[in-house]
Amino acid sequence: MAERYRLCADDYAQNAGISRGIRMLAAEGRLQATSAMTNAPGWPEEARAFASLRPRCALGLHLTLTHGAPLGPMPLFAPKGVFPPLGRVMALSLGGRLRGAMGDEIAAEIARQIAAFVAHAGMPDHVDGHQHVHALPGIRGRLLAALARQFPGQAIGFRDPSDRLAAILARPEPGKALVVAGLALGLAKAARARGLRVNRGFSGFSGFGPRPYAAEFPGFLRRLGPEPLVMCHPGEGDDPSDPLGPRRGEELAYLRGLPHG
């Protein structure tokens, strides 16, 4: 499996059940990477728990601006002390409103989340974004600049959540994938210009609906790119506040049955 594509589990540290499930898959050799939410209250503990798995499974930063609370004050972007939903962030981004003081708040929060990662896990192996916010105008440039300042000359991995049109159309949830690919136009080029390593091929968009994960996953592997990354969202779905809760357990069970490297 590892020779054909890299499987990356998102949302590490979001809650204890997700983290346990991801560590289980990493220990069994069924994941090549996971991305961590450093704004989560449990991040320091979950970072320590993952340390022994790091040599066999990459650990990266999952920049989070649409879930939970910021690590510092953001009176314009998050006036109630919690991040806005994705729709609101997209509207601000595409409306050109992530500038000036609000843009400064975004830059400061990016720096805080990077610092929180470094404090507990050292340099990230890669960087991406929860709900792909790292691809949005007004966020992507600030993130790339922050990485260049913090890790000069380091070829950290950077997620490009887009793919070729024919590949997207051959897989599940092409509409969602096309929207994200459109938002990510130019992202890979900008990341490579900063010296970052970028995947070539991306899949894993799920409907998180009634269709079984076992029926979706083979479709993620259609028309893989030359250096493909496949995202997934496994975990022990025991948090009633998690909208993906039961589905995470389904993904965990399926992925534990895959061949491992």
Task: Please specify the SSE layout and strand pairing.
Elements lengths: L5 E7 L3 H12 L5 E4 L6 H8 L7 E6 L22 H9 L5 H22 L4 E4 L10 H11 L6 E2 L6 H5 L4 H10 L3 H7 L3 E2 L3 E2 L9 H8 L8 E4 L12 H12 L5
Parallel strand pairs: 1-2, 1-8, 2-3, 3-4, 4-5, 5-6, 7-8
Offer a concise description of the structure.
The protein is α/β, with parallel strands linked by helices and 261 residues long. The protein contains 10 helices and 8 strands.
Keywords:
261 residues, alpha/beta, TIM Barrel, 10 helices, 8 strands
Model description:
The chain is of the alpha/beta class and 261 residues long. It has a single domain (6-256), classed as TIM Barrel (Alpha-Beta Barrel), CATH 3.20.20. The chain is 40% helix and 12% strand. It contains ten helices and eight strands. The chain has an eight-stranded parallel β-sheet, covered by helices on one side. Strand 1, helix 1 (16-27) and strand 2 (33-36) form a beta-alpha-beta unit. Helix 1 (16-27) packs parallel to helix 10 (245-256) and helix 4 crosses helix 5. 44% of the residues are buried.
